[in-house]
Amino acid sequence: MIKINGVSKSFGTLKAVDAVDLEIIKSESLGLVGESGSGKTTLARMILKLTAPDTGSIDYAGITDLRRECQIVFQDPQTSLNPRIRIGEAIGEPLVIHKIVDSRKSKVESRIEELLGMVKLPSDYARRWPHELSGGERQRVGIARALASNPKFVVLDEPVSALDVSIQIDILRLLLEIKKELDLTYLFIAHDLNVVGFMCDRIAVMQQGKIIEVGRSDKILKQPSTDYAKKLIASTLPI
């Protein structure tokens, strides 16, 4: 679906992404792992065209409307929602912007209710404010908002790292259920190898702006070929 060809990005003297080649296959969940500062988020931002690469190219096979068909779920559900607008309005904005449904109020409200149901939230949450929701509920809203534009590809940037451990698994299971139901493609950015092993078909390991290892999740986690990947796995607490 998405083919990244020799992409690089520098900020001053810092080379955040260095000649990366990577393919994200349709319908897969690809985990992108590495220490903080390894270039994961910069690479994701270039894929979403929020940041322009200095060199290289990104091909989007099967994606005709990048702004609508590629979406992101952010790490912190509290800061990613506007505290001044109700939940229904937050979810409904993409519906209006991308003209997903008829602009009549009843049609928009019906789709908002459907999206809330998809993330296992009651329809009356549309009238609530972000501060009235728990962290897990806010992240469900963030997922619903990302799904509003009927995307094909979703970047999940540390989507559970800001949540209590007790509710992380519920959000991860929800994401897997939605992926299967809608046949989505995920780029799952994380530093927790337990989470990546649970969520992803393949793993790409990133170090100092370079992709140093790519393979099936079970192979990477059991038989990593690089010392850096071995270090990451060794530093992960077992569950």
Structural features, described:
It is a single chain. This protein has 239 residues and is an alpha/beta fold. The protein has two domains: 117 residues, P-loop containing nucleotide triphosphate hydrolases (Rossmann fold, 3-Layer(aba) Sandwich), CATH 3.40.50; 69 residues, no CATH class. The protein contains nine helices and nine strands. The protein has a six-stranded mixed sheet, with helices on both faces. It has a three-stranded antiparallel sheet with strand order 2-1-4, with helices on one face. Helix 3 crosses helix 4. The chain is globular and about 55 Å long. 40% of the residues are buried. The mean pLDDT is 93.
> Globular, elongated, flat, extended or rod-shaped: what is the shape?
globular
- Going by CATH, the architecture of the largest domain would be 3-Layer(aba) Sandwich
For the largest sheet, list the strands in their spatial order.
5-6-7-3-8-9
Strand content: 25-35%
Number of strands: 9
The secondary-structure element order is EEEHEHEHHHEHEHEEHH
CA radius of gyration is: 18 Å
Helix content: 25-40%
